Amino acid sequence: MTMNAFASSNSPLTREAMEPFWLPMTPNRQFKSKPRIFVGAEGMHYVTDDNRRILDGMAGLWCVNAGHAQRRIVEAIQAQAAKLDFVSSFQMSHPAAFELARRITEIAPAGLDHVFFTNSGSEAVDTALKIARGYHRAHGDASRIRFISRAKAYHGMGWGGLSVSGIVRHRRDFGPLLPEVDHLPHTHNPEHAAFSRGQPQWGAHLADELSKLLQVHDPSTIAAVIVEPVTGSGGVLPPPVGYLERLRKICDQHGILLIFDEVITGFGRLGAAFGANAFGVTPDIITCAKGMTNAAVPMGGVIASGKVYDALMQGPDNAIELFHGYTYSAHPLACAAGLAALDVYQDLGLFERARRLAPVWENHAHGLRDLPHVIDIRNIGLLAAIDLKPREGAPGARGSECANRCYEDGILIRGSGDTLLISPPLIITEEQIADIFAAIRRALTGIS
Where is the signal peptide (predicted)? Predict the structure, then answer.
């Protein structure tokens, strides 16, 4: 299919036609006065309703790892819809669910060998938190109900995930949230680690803040520590060298489960199947989503260790071990998309490609260091963040203007406050990497 085939023959949407749709995470009134509408996508590009090609520097929303409209994934979904459109996984299932679970465990770190399917990263996090509490109750440790997360963390929009998240604006309007939660400090410290390339050398000691929290909360009350191996929406914060290893050691010392939220870092973003593989640190549970199906069908999952799974496999064989699940868990279309996505990742060597391109990506990102307004740059794998100095009296305005200028220049990146976030499909070329950062350069030199 050619890109011209995506051209829209319809008239632009009117304000009246848009009004019924309440967009998520969007200033709806502003958007509907000047909408950004996509009508097609292929490879590295979106197509707008006025037939402009937009280079996707965000992989949709950190999720289209193999690029848009991958033919193998599209055809797998189509074939599955014609064969078996739906079957519940409540006391029944279908072959693709078992095959997808097997193949995910094959690429996960050794020992993580059971998958519980959800429909999103938010559901995966809530599921993981429930499993953690259930695990300890099965061991007779019903007092282990507390969770420890981290400032700047994003763990989705479910009630549990929001409670452990550490982004103030996400939490502000919806409290009280779960009370049995505490937070570690984040690892971002420009004074000691500004413009780090990859993992900062400074900051491993911040993991010891967990030991300090255990002096406040009896360790026997802690169910799990949940962290993103790389903080994503909170600003692309790679873990300091040795940091994750220290967390793992402290958790082991006190019988606390360690959960890695890999909704963003899973499926190749860091040049490996999961961040756990990339960093050589194995948690007890991994949550995943996004790249799991290349975003073609919503899906998430919880990958659990045998230790966690076996603890819940108690009682009579005919008893439900975990009273939890979703109508669309292991949906046949999602499983078909997931299996095809894994094939595409393997056949195109995309995890290896991301690893190979990471130094090129890094050099282009840090090439913006001396531009106006830039106060920090961070990168790891095919992730990058650029912090801009806030405009006096208008925090967030400079980042928003820069992202909008890039969009008008044909490049989609994300402005989060005064931080620019970039996370492209793993099929990106070196030339397209150069195009992304050239557009950011033009934008930064053109704003006050």
Answer: none
**Could you tell me the pLDDT band of residue 197, with boundaries at 50, 70 and 90?**
very high
Fold for domain 73-347?
Aspartate Aminotransferase; domain 2 (3.40.640)
Domain 3-66+349-445 falls in which CATH fold?
A: Aspartate Aminotransferase, domain 1 (3.90.1150)
Peptide bond into 176 cis (omega under 30): yes
Mean pLDDT (the chain) is 96
Q: State the Cα–Cα distance between residues 239 and 386, nearest whole angstrom.
A: 17
Instruction: Give me the residue spans of the domains in the chain.
Output: 3-66+349-445, 73-347
Q: 339: buried, middle or exposed (CB in 10 Å: 19+, 13-18, 0-12)?
A: buried
Residue percentage of the chain with pLDDT more than 90: 96
387 vs 403: CA distance, rounded Å: 12
Residue 338 has pLDDT above 60, yes or no: yes
By residue count, the chain amounts to 448
Residue 99 Cα distances to 229, 341, 446, angstroms: 27, 13, 52
Contacts of 72 (CB under 8 A, 6+ apart): 340, 343, 344
The DSSP annotation for 222-283 comes to EEEEEE-SSB-TTT-BPPPTTHHHHHHHHHHHHT-EEEEE-TTTTTTTTSSSSHHHHHT---
Q: What is the pLDDT of residues 111-148, one digit of tens each?
A: 999 999 999 999 999 999 999 999 999 999 999 999 99
pTM of the model: 0.96
Residue 355 φ then ψ, to 5°: -65, -40
Beta-strand relationship, 146-150 and 53-56: unpaired
Spell out the residues 6+ positions from residue 392 whose beta carbon is closer than 8 angstroms to its own.
none
